[in-house]
Specification:
The complex is a heterodimer of chains A (176) and B (205).
Chain A lengths: L2 H7 L5 H21 L2 H17 L10 H20 L6 H4 L2 H4 L10 H11 L3 H12 L4 H8 L3 H18 L7
Helix pairs in contact in A: 2-3, 2-4, 2-8, 3-4, 4-9, 8-10, 9-10
Chain B lengths: L8 H8 L5 H13 L1 H17 L9 H5 L1 H23 L9 H11 L8 H10 L3 H17 L26 H18 L2 H5 L1 H4 L1
Helix pairs in contact in B: 1-3, 2-3, 6-7, 6-8, 7-8
Classes of the chains: A mainly alpha (176), B mainly alpha (205).
The structure holds zinc ion.
Chain lengths: 176, 205
């Protein structure tokens, strides 16, 4: 355990502020990559730290602090999506999106960036979470298993599915 | 390697991600050199991941980060206050630690709102859970809150209550409140008779 984790586990005064400072951007990024909505991600990132604060007595230091925080964030985001019953975009609807130049991602985004963003929306939420942690955060399969409360096998399967699906959606699905 | 040794897509993904090492990686490289089909698949995967790397997280305005910690503190304070009010209201005399599954069924059945909990899954999970007591109290609190504050069920937004996730349910109660609730639950259950009676399916369905 690093020093911050140790102090957090011991409930040191003032350590929470440091934890917020250190992880807020990462948590916001993860929330966005799962929720795919900027406003919701901004709100959720703060809620995650509220929960981190409330649960601080339950952080036993068995996992790294950031995996523990990621686990809270992932759970909250997935639950949020479930409650909102946001339908998963069917694969057919997003195929060929490179040509379709879909909306989303904001005006300063290039057409290609918007297409990529739409493809991410096309992933089921759990795959989004795993893909974000593996591909963007470079977390190990084991760390992701901890952060998602699943097995390493499930993480690998989720990651493989995510890549395959992205490949199809981004027009790389054809056999060459 | 012959064409029959063509690699499955998942292994190629691992390869492209740099997760295959040593002799196996060398074998794959060798195969790719000779096999146009697999070469094409690897190239396609690489292009996919190059595209994926373009995915951007929108940067919030600076004010968001400036006020981030203060915003969190504010939420913590107001949550603590509203929680105190709610907990007082639901601490009706009586209810039980041994039979939280019963309690959940009971409270949801008479609650004014659609249950947001998959009751049977929760019950099954609780029965097999190693952290049963803590979890059941948390789940019970949730159920009580839904039953009592249906219109404010957004309170539950942050909870995971479904098969496999029960162990993740978190309590908003501190230790003292948790103990108090357990005691209250126990008393109520006693006054309501045996668990079997209340847990009957009729009660729920
Ligand atoms: Zn081949």
């Amino acid at each position: 355990m690093d020093e911050l984790s140790t102090r957090f586990a011991h409930g040191d005064e003032g350590v929470f502020e440091e934890v917020v400072e250190r992880y807020s951007r990462k948590v916001y990024g993860l929330c966005y990559r799962i929720l795919r909505d900027e406003e919701e991600a901004r709100d959720m990132a703060q809620e995650v730290f509220v929960r981190v604060y409330e649960k601080r007595g339950k952080f036993g230091g068995r996992s790294a602090l950031y995996t523990w925080i990621y686990r809270i964030a992932t759970n909250m985001c997935l639950t949020h999506l479930k409650r909102r019953r946001i339908p998963t975009v069917p694969l057919e609807a997003v195929e060929g999106m490179l040509e379709a130049a879909p909306a989303g991602g904001g005006p300063d985004y290039s057409r290609l960036e918007r297409a990529v963003s739409q493809a991410m929306v096309g992933l089921p939420p759990r795959q989004r979470a795993v893909f974000a942690m593996r591909f963007f955060e470079k977390m190990s399969v084991r760390e992701i298993a901890e952060a998602t409360g699943t097995t390493t096998g499930a993480v690998k399967a989720n990651y493989h599915h995510a890549v395959r699906r992205l490949k199809e959606m981004l027009g790389e699905g054809g056999s060459t | 390697m012959s064409a029959r040794d063509c690699l499955d897509e998942d292994r190629l993904i691992d390869f492209v991600m740099g997760e295959v090492t040593g002799g196996e990686a060398a074998g794959i490289e060798e195969h790719i050199r000779r096999c146009p089909a697999c070469r094409g698949r690897v190239e396609s995967l690489r292009r996919t991941l190059d595209l994926a790397a373009m995915d951007r997280v929108p940067e919030p305005v600076p004010a968001y980060w400036e006020h981030f910690a203060a915003g969190v503190r504010h939420r913590i304070r107001s949550r603590a206050e509203s929680r105190k009010r709610r907990i007082r209201l639901i601490l009706i005399p009586g209810l039980a630690t041994a039979a939280a599954s019963v309690l959940i069924v009971l409270m949801l059945a008479r609650g004014p709102v659609e249950p947001v909990v998959d009751v049977e899954a929760v019950v099954a999970e609780i029965n097999t859970s190693a952290v049963a007591e803590e979890v059941l109290v948390e789940a019970a609190v949730d159920a009580l809150l839904v039953a009592q504050f249906g219109e404010e069920a957004d309170l539950l937004d942050n909870y995971l209550i479904e098969t496999g996730d029960v162990a993740e349910i978190v309590t908003e109660l501190d230790d003292e409140e948790e103990r108090e609730l357990i005691n209250k639950l126990a008393t109520i259950m006693e006054s309501r008779g045996s668990a079997e009676t209340i847990a009957g399916k009729e009660c729920w369905s």
